[in-house]
Amino acid sequence: MKGKIPACAAALLILAAAAVCPGCGGAEDGARAAGKPPVPVETATVTTGDVEEGIDVVGTLSSRYQAEIKSDYGGVVSKIHVHDWARVRKGDPLLTVDAREGELALQKSKAALEMAKAGLLEAEAAGNRADREYDRALRLLEAGLITRQGLDDAQTLREAAAARIAAANAQVLAAREDVAQISMRLSKAVIRAPFDGTVSERLVNVGDLVGEMQKVVFRVVDNRTLELTATVPSMSMASLRAGLPLLFATDAFPGREFRGKITWINPSVSPGDRSVRVIAEVPNDPEVLRGGLFVKGRIVTGSRKGVLLVPRAALGGWDPASFKGEAFVVDGNVARRRGVRTGAVHGDFVEVAEGLRPGERVITRGSFNVKDGDALKVAAAGGK
Length: 384
Known about the structure:
By secondary structure, this protein is of the alpha+beta class.
């Protein structure tokens, strides 16, 4: 019949229109939904929260105070007062060196001091006599009972006595110095702890020969305060300053977080890797941590409130260095691919600077099997 379009031709025109305008009326989504069953996924809500900005570091713990102790007194070890891992206080004896020869030398020097003192007393007595004879000669000269030569002889004797007193005084001083030096050297026969701490290693036994040129005899450490040494890339130098907190963990204590504070920043950049060495002070009372432990941590440089956060699992093709990634947003029951710009990382969550809005839901599990426009079956939902 003229003016009417056959039914088959009308169907062909509708299909042609759909091919020319695939986005019109959700035809593509409908076709996918009709040809592919809904994909099971899990989702999470884009939320807001507070994030800490910081610099990730790795480093090593060491004791702030540690000493390798040698003996300043040469001799044979006669007694050991402490053993490995003993707690010591400053001044506690660690070992004693046989000092019998030194004690004998001290006795001799003390005897020499007493003899010098006796000689000084004799010289002073002679000096007093010479002074009296000189005064007597002066009176006799005034009375005309002696000649001028007699007075000069008395003066000469007086001066000689004063010289003997000076020499005796010098001998006493020298003898006292000998006694002081030998006594000080003998005091080094007992090696004492230089500070409060723990004997980490004992390297000597009774009968061993020790001395200034001999080996280390003890290692003592104080673990109450540790130092964490780490390196920071030079590109992050602008954020560094003394006093910043450093949070860290170690495999020796899984699940525990420890805290330190930046106390020192190297004024020079390492020419090898363009990094800056920093040291953090770590209080360690009780002494849980030990020097030598390897740690991973983060220097907290600042914080921001009310930023968008999504789970790490929601990001696909995420490149933290370029701050770019993708996420699938749930639009009704359809997946929509969305490019996002990321920011700081906060535990298992990542800041989203652009690309998402608060309250939107993103796929966290099952996205590997999802394409843009696929129908979804939300199997579970979670949030931050």
